Amino acid sequence: MRRHPANYNTKQSEAVLACLAKHKDEYITAAQIGEHFQKSGDPVSRTTIYRQLERLVQEGRARKYTFDGTQGACFRYAEQPENEQDFYHLKCEGCGGIFHLKCDEVDHVSRHIFETHAFQVNDSKTVFYGKCNMCLPK
């Protein structure tokens, strides 16, 4: 049986990475990636998608986020893995949208918590819940 090296890129791996890159400013689930392939007429099994996503996360080519335990993991394309910054997140309780938050004011709060309370906040796992501008008027 022929074995491939650990960094061997398969057609499915490249397709999953291309899908993430196409949606690089969004958080995308494995189910949404599956729908993307289904619509394109090139269906890929959910097991294959999960396996490829986990591999891309291990390689630093994608990032994995779990927010509140009520929904599955979301993934995001890691444009520059070695320089990828962690961000705080905003999650809309209306539409479920997830948004990056890079804000100096919140950074000050994080720094205060560290300096005053000797506790380091994990930016990438910090989520603020509320309603986005589209859901607010509803």
List keywords for this structure.
globular, Dna Ligase, domain 1, 138 residues, disordered N terminus, alpha+beta, two-stranded antiparallel ribbon
Would you kindly provide a written description of the structure presented here, covering whatever features stand out?
By secondary structure, the protein is α+β, with helices and mostly antiparallel strands. It folds into two domains: 1-81, Arc Repressor Mutant, subunit A; 85-138, Ferric-uptake regulator, C-terminal dimerisarion domain (Dna Ligase, domain 1, 2-Layer Sandwich). It is 36% helix and 15% strand. It contains four helices and five strands. A three-stranded mixed sheet has the order 4-3-5, with no helix packed on it. A two-stranded antiparallel ribbon has the order 1-2. A hairpin with an 8-residue loop joins strand 1 (62-65) and strand 2. Helix 1 packs across helix 3 and helix 2 (30-39) packs across helix 3. The model is unreliable at 1-6 (pLDDT under 50).
CATH class of the largest domain equals Mainly Alpha
Number of domains: 2
What would the average pLDDT be, to the nearest integer?
82
User: Cα distance, first to last residue?
Assistant: 59 Å
Oligomer: single chain
| Cross-sheet strand order for the largest sheet | 4-3-5
For the biggest sheet, the summary is: 3 strands, mixed
